[in-house]
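Hello, quick one for you while I still have it in my head. A protein chain has come my way and I'm curious about its shape. Can you walk me through what the tokens say about the fold? No rush at all, and the record is pasted right below.
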Amino acid sequence: MLSHLYSLLVLAIAIFTSLLGSQVLVKNPYHRPGRAFFLTMLLISARCVFHFGMLNSPDEGTALVWGKAAMAAGVLLSGSLCYLASYLPYSRYEAWPVKNARVFWVAVAALAIFFGLAADGIKTIDFGYGLDYSTAVMAGYVVSLVMSTGASAISLTARQGSRDSSFRSSILLMAAAPLIPFVSMIFLMALGLDPLFAPGLLISALIYAFLVLKHRVLNIGASTRPAKLRSTENGDSILVEGRTLRPAYELFLTDIKEGRPGMVVCRRHPDRIREEMGLNDLPMLWLSSQPGPDRVDPTSLNILQHSITVFVEKASPAVILLEGVEYLISQNSLDKVLRMLYSIRDTVTVSGSKLIMPMDPEVLHQRELALMEKEFTLERAEA
């Protein structure tokens, strides 16, 4: 009787996570964090399906095949958790799995294949067949645990970058979720029971559902159609939402070609921007904590505001491209950055100049994004 109930639990987790991931993907199929979440839920579902097949196999040979697949899916799942955590606000695009996605997934896939093939033993447990805890199997679990710990560590970096108390509380749950299946296995072993993976996996899945659907820690919004940027007017302060910086720079270049004086405040190195955009003679300020000419520390908002204001007053009607608003918020606070932007906006409006601010909406927490969209003219370059 217990074996049937446990098998049904495993199957229920597979169905629940596949439906949860599909719901998020359908809501916005173009949203990268949403796709990462769907992949994670799909791998949890696959892990459970393979586990179900192993439990209910007719013989040890068949059970070993299912067990190998379950081990491989488990390693892939741990890698997916790292990838998903890298899309949290404040850690997004900075974590290695996202910045080097191709290399990361090749390495994770290679580990999954290796440990899947290395699984070499089956034993009978109270609920059916299970993997024998040989050296190879334990090594696979250790690798999965290391990657799951990495996912938790990435989540905690997002918590450190935010001053939103609600978000910080949610991230503690997000950081705990990857480790719960392993903690539950250790707890069951300490009680002298079979170290089952499914109970902890169910708790983790429920945590992800709670955080993503209720607290929206990944900012998964509804899909929208790409919009063409309108022509801007003198005095405008425009927030250009999109995944890339190019639409905002194209808007900026349009004004430069019309003869307006321009200035770029950038997060990337100025030489890279000059090379990419052909802005060789344009004044630029680099947001960098390293001292040097034409650099501004991102925490020195007064100096940044003064530099922009002086340029606008001397060269009006000018056009300013302010790149890295998300970075400024992470280094200061939303309130401080907004106060600076309000002052710059007033200067821009009075002088008939323009302020263009590219921003990736996936990087900010929902409350911060809503405030930014409320205060400035919004243009969506892409979904």
In short: The chain has two domains: 2-215, 237-380. Residues 2-215 form a domain with the Rhopdopsin 7-helix transmembrane proteins fold (CATH 1.20.1070.10). The chain has a mean pLDDT of 84.
